[in-house]
Amino acid sequence: MKEYKRYLVTSALPYANGPVHIGHLAGVYVPSDIYVRYLRKRGRDVIWVCGSDEHGVPITIKARREGISPQDVVDKYHKIIKESFEGLGISFDIYSRTTSPVHAKTASDFFLDLYNKGEFTEETTMQYYDEEAGIFLADRYITGTCPKCGSEGAYGDQCEKCGSTLNATDLINPRSAISGSQPVLRETKHWYLPLDRHEAFLRHWILDGHKEWKTNVYGQCKSWLDGGLQPRAVSRDLNWGIPVPVEGAEGKVLYVWFDAPIGYISATKELTPEWEKYWKDEETKMVHFIGKDNIVFHCIVFPAMLKAHGGYILPDNVPANEFLNLEGEKISTSRNWAVWLNEYLEEMPGKQDVLRYVLTANAPETKDNDFTWKEFQARNNNELVAVLGNFVNRALVLTGKYFDGTVPASGELTAYDRETLDELPRIRESLENNIEHYRFREALKDAMNFARLGNKYLADTEPWKVVKSDPARVATILHTALQITANTAIAIEPFMPFTAEKMWRMLATEPLGWDALGRSDLIPAGHRTGTPELLFEKIEDEVIERQLRKLEEAKAANAAAAAVTEPQKETITFDDFQKMDIRVARIVTAEKVAKTKKLLKLTVDTGIDTRVIVSGIAEHYTPEELVGRQVLVLVNLAPRELKGIESKGMILMGTDPTGKLVLLQPAAETACGTTVG
């Protein structure tokens, strides 16, 4: 493996039209933070750049819907995203934004350099235009009937029902997703980056030169290259973005996919006047951390841009992750089916490292994975509390109890002591190898193996049993345990920085560098430790149930928004209505009907009599929930026999957005027998 003088790490620019959620964190930001913290811990020259992606059509759509300016939208979410990252300990060297003046000039200059070299082609095409909104429409903002499967709501680039790739002009009955009007085709001119010119270079550079890339990344690149690269527009008709800096380009801006990756360069310029050594020196290793939806842009398009410009290095690796689902469903910002970082930090104070740990332990490194709140709870309680927290607490509490908080001197080591300490450098070697190859899930296991080793050592040596008969032996045991504790603090720091900080405070020593990892002489005899504190607390069921209820509420709100109201039934006369005798009644008894799932036998007081009604609501209400409740009953419905029981009447019900049947009831206590009409 080549040794580099310095590292440039970039993370995909989050889009500033909403907060960051756990899918973003697991896919991009937590793994890149681990990698950068590790490099810093090793004393490497490394900078890490990121920023908000603030241009593009979705920003203008959100601004239009909320009645505010695009700048208002990005200002709001840039602040939320930046503060959320800081709250989770995501340690960028700079977090910039693509609306900065430095970025505008950098992106404009980059375009002009390629333009002046003749690297673009100009094409005039017919595109859909929304006359009501006064804008050209991106494919994603045109909907219609899919020509392949006939389903409604297909987009101009894809039908999500059948998965077919489409052109906007293929849609039947196209509509603007902005105004709802029918768009018209208009002629427009744009500049294109002819990726086909760079295909031979990209094929050799990726397929021959980077076989070590993750299989999901390599495979997607190969698929694109095998399919043949096509020119890609670098401009679009829009009034929000960086203006195309050439004559005849009025009303056109740089396409956001061209604009955004240049944000890495402009952020580096903002960070340091020596930016060129990170971007133009072959002794720099550049690594892009992204999600799988950005693989093509970072492995094919951006390298083609850099190559066309000349003078820039290309990425050494692009360790893209797959997607993280939530409770078995795809995360969706539009449906509010997500765990938002800003809300998590507010609702789970002091648990930043729990989230970092769980997202790393379950990272979608090679395939899509699923986040569940029950697993979150289990990993906290069974791993962080029971393994890491338990070991550190026991080592420090026993030192305080038996040696007044002073590190005891070690006596002669037993074979088991030496065998335990010999594991430290072996774990370090595996940990480093996994981080260097972007296997952060495995690396986290290695880091936790220091704590597992310590836990096993204390369980096997049982100092609490030996202390009365052989205090010198206990001194050796706890001296050894404290060396393992210090090793654990070094190893977990990239993964759980807040926890490592607590551990160094409890050990009452400054954080030790990575070079110390694996050694058994980190905390000298005679050193006074600090006050032990619990690293983690058990998460109770009610905390998890609260989060699950929150998701169910989001699901109910989505169902309500998507609910289709049934059309009006056939018109009836007033006389028809008068035939229905609806009365207020009270449920006196309720019991399940044997050998059925849905039926309940209800005895009701209608005010005119007491009768039995069989109702199919057992999947929605328990008998205990119903007794004593007032309901509305259609009392003059013809009797009907159900499961051998004569049912006289019908309980009136509605259906909520989730499909649950709900009782229709008087708003206040009403005399049984009161008629409704």
TrEMBL record:
Named cofactor requirement(s): Zn(2+)
The EC number(s) this enzyme carries: 6.1.1.10
One Pfam family from the record: Anticodon_3
Subcellular locations according to the entry: Cytoplasm
Motif 'HIGH' region per record, residues: 14-24
CDD domains: Anticodon_Ia_Met (cd07957), MetRS_core (cd00814), tRNA_bind_EcMetRS_like (cd02800)
Domain TRNA-binding as annotated: residue spans: 576-677
Binding site for ATP: T333
Predominant location category: cytoplasm
Chain positions recorded as Zn(2+) binding sites: C146, C149, C159, C162
HAMAP family named among the record's database cross-references: Met_tRNA_synth_type1
Complex and partners: Homodimer.
Name of the featured protein: Methionine--tRNA ligase
